[in-house]
Amino acid sequence: MAAKQDEAVPDDLLKHLRRTIPGFRKEKEEHQWGLARMVWIGGSKLRQHDRWEGAMSFHYLELEQAFGRTGFNAINARLGFFIVTGNWWMDKGLTKAYWFSETVAQAREKYFNRRWHRVTRMIWADGRAMKKLPKAVASKDMRGITTTAWRNAKEMNNVRINLPQLQRLQAWLRHVRDEWRNNGRAPSDLFLEYPTNLEVIERLADITTRIIILAKTDVAGHGYVAHRYVESESGRLYAKDINLQTTPTIIKQAALAGLWEYDFSNCHYAILMQMAAKFGYQCQAIDNYLANKNATRQAIAEQAGITVSQAKTCLLAIIYGARASTRSGNAIPDEIGPQAAELLYRSPIFTGIHLDIKKARRAILNGWPRTANGRLSNAMEKAISTKETDHRQQLAHLIQGVEARALKTAIDLYPDDIVLLQHDGFAATTRLDDKAIMEAVFQATGYRLELEEARIQVDPEEQFLKYRIQSENIRKANAGAGSGLSLVS
Prior knowledge:
Blueprint: E1 8-10, H1 11-20, H2 29-41, E2 56-57, H3 60-67, H4 71-79, E3 82-85, E4 97-100, H5 102-113, E5 122-124, E6 158-160, H6 163-183, H7 198-214, E7 224-226, E8 229-231, E9 237-239, H8 249-255, E10 260-264, H9 267-278, H10 284-291, H11 293-304, H12 308-319, H13 331-336, H14 338-344, H15 348-367, E11 375-377, E12 383-385, H16 391-413, E13 418-422, E14 425-428, H17 434-445, E15 451-455, H18 460-479, E16 487-488
Antiparallel strand pairs: 1-5, 2-4, 3-4, 3-16, 6-7, 8-9, 10-14, 10-15, 11-12, 13-14
Helix pairs in contact: 1-2, 1-5, 6-7, 9-15, 9-16, 10-11, 10-15, 11-12, 11-14, 15-16, 16-17
């Protein structure tokens, strides 16, 4: 939340808050900007609280950077901007939970519900208007080190979107939202089962509107959304602020409808198996999983009483070190619930793959060469300390390095066609030669990775099933949270 040069908010949002929130315009301008920033990003996926549905998460250090050590609490006491939980959960890595007050929520919804005919200006934290688009990839990575690895990603700073399709999605989500509010229940639909929580539809409508606003800025141009990435410690690129990389699937599908999407099939497991083989360990369970991907996920889902999508998520979680725990706060029980997690850990297929991962990790880390000062360097030539990281982080660093190098290779091959980077894939404006990309990736990394391609189209059922599952798990978690929650405004 610090006032950085690559963070901006819509100018008319600032003006709207000054008109509608009593006392807002009396605050310092940098604090007005900071509050507007929280309003702007508050409904994004990255800000959703991991425990409390409908709540947002803001780290106390972010608030200190934006408002000073005690500034946020004083400002919130004056304006009544947020309702905040009186406690946080350090042992579980959870911040306090934040909800907009009724006044702010109404002002925010009024802003997002207005008709957007005019061009929007974006304003930097220091009050200047954005005059030109920043480069696609920040010149310094997350550690502040200068990077030039992604210089061919220049076309990814401004993504052309399917604005008519996005506007149709917006109209449909608003219709569902309004009908639900008026009738107290989800609309009836013969072909589509909606999420169990109205807040999901409200959030989707909210995010869709923000993407539409960003597609009408003077600096990006009508029908384009500016994007900015920063390189992580492993070499991966993460999009900043409101973006299509982290946007819910249904919105991304609408925005990119008609484009081509490419994903490296089971990327992390394919890399892990080949990496382990280089150090003498043959992953039999993982090899069987890769050869029978759909059947393996289906069998695990049936054994644990979960969906295939959940089985896929759990398999990805264990490759990055998720523990076989049923305690709330751990990745797998938070995803599928403690009872299903207990069943999952009894699944012979799942436990076989989990054991394979542990043995592969041991072989890889024992054999991987160290730099002169004992650090671990990956395929993106990014090094981490083995003293400051555990074995799970070290394996993730190596796998993500290969993944990032594969994506970089694709961009280097098609710099004018690839417009959006995802964690194990990308979107392109035209159909690409997948065999050429796979061969280039092998030459660059030494790993054989298979590309899957598809024409992007909107699929609400895929997204809504995921939300129904998440809502049920959060409800169960909150039911067992006890009575220790207190709210303060």
